[in-house]
Amino acid sequence: MVEVARQQGMELPEGEATSQEPAEEPLPPLIAEAHEAIERGDLDAAVASYEKHLQESPADAEAKAGLATVSLMRRTQGADLAAAREAAAQRPDDLDAQLLVADLDMLGGHVDDAFARLLEQLRGADQETKDAVRARLLELFEVAGPGDPRVAPARKRLANLLF
């Protein structure tokens, strides 16, 4: 409202502009610490800060998503997309190669591709593979966020393939 008034050339009394705008809440200290670590490129420190915050506030969905995102960034740091794709194509049974490409797809915004690649790994998989794929998918669901429309169908397919 204040912005609309300004655009129409109205002058506001002193202090009026700030009273209408909601104050931004400060970040919890450990989350702020994690953000600073990310900006410095210290992903290990960011993970540590998120983990410590989650020990104190285990239900903090934003912190869970932040931790999942930083973990994704850490796993893909220095990875060569073309080489990773080639390795995954040459070795379709190499779970690590498939996990890396799924991570790179997720980081690149190819969420459907990441989910589909991992869900495909579940067909005929042994329990160890199922556990690894399930864990990674749950983490990628956190990165995407519960509101992402691609998450619910992927969760349903995961449940169907596991049980």
Describe what you observe in this structure.
By secondary structure, this protein is mainly alpha-helical. Helix content is 71%, strand content 0%. The chain contains 10 helices and no strands. The chain has helices spanning 2-7, 16-20, 29-40, 43-56, 61-76, 81-90, 95-107, 111-120, 127-144, 151-162. Helix 3 runs antiparallel to helix 4 (43-56), helix 5 (61-76) packs across helix 7 (95-107) and helix 5 (61-76) packs across helix 9. The longest helix is centred in the last third of the chain and has 18 residues, at 127-144. It is globular. The protein starts with a helix and ends with a helix. Mean pLDDT is 88; it is low at 1-13 and 15-19.
For the structure shown, list the relevant keywords.
10 helices, 163 residues, mainly alpha, disordered N terminus
What percent strand?
under 5%
Q: Uncertain segments of ≥5 residues (pLDDT<50)? A: 1-13, 15-19
The N- and C-terminal alpha carbons lie at a distance of 53 Å
What is the count of β-strands? 0
Overall pLDDT score:
88
By DSSP (H or I, 4+ residues per run), the number of helices equals 10
Radius of gyration, CA atoms, in whole angstroms: 21 Å
Structural class: mainly alpha
How many strands, what sense, and barrel or not for the largest sheet? none
Shape: globular
Output the helix-strand order.
HHHHHHHHHH
Portion of residues in helices? Answer: over 70%
